[in-house]
């Protein structure tokens, strides 16, 4: 999940220049999102804060950056065996990952600054 300040500008880069295909999009209470893929198993979800109080947390987290990786989301065989993992809570993760159960999280502080969101295969 790549948080961006301006979804239209991010779309110009990821779709226009890099050739991604929009496979889904939507709006939540705190962000707008767009899922892209390139015809293979990997894709990216772009998220952008909405105007007003619900989106302020994401906007504050982005600060003055135009974009910032929020987390990597992976499907794994046994997420509970990954060092530093704990059961995930979408509210704690900070962004809706689109999956409500079976989520495990490795926080940035125990993973060289990058949050991992894991799901059982």
Counting H and I runs of at least 4 residues, what is the number of helices? 3
Question: Got a strand count?
Answer: 9
The run of helices and strands is EHEEEHEEEHEE
Q: Give the structural class.
A: alpha+beta
Tell me briefly what this model is:
The chain is built from three helices and nine strands, in the order E-H-E-E-E-H-E-E-E-H-E-E. The chain has helices spanning 7-17, 56-62, 90-93; strands spanning 2-4, 21-27, 31-37, 43-49, 67-69, 71-76, 85-87, 103-106, 115-120.
Question: What does this molecule look like?
Answer:
The protein is an alpha+beta fold and 121 residues long. The chain contains 3 helices and 9 strands. The chain has helices at 7-17, 56-62, 90-93; strands spanning 2-4, 21-27, 31-37, 43-49, 67-69, 71-76, 85-87, 103-106, 115-120. The strands form 2 sheets. It has a 5-stranded mixed beta sheet with strand order 2-3-4-1-5. The chain has a 4-stranded mixed beta sheet with strand order 6-9-8-7, with no helix packed on it. The chain is globular, with a radius of gyration of 14 Å. The model has no long low-confidence stretch (mean pLDDT 86).
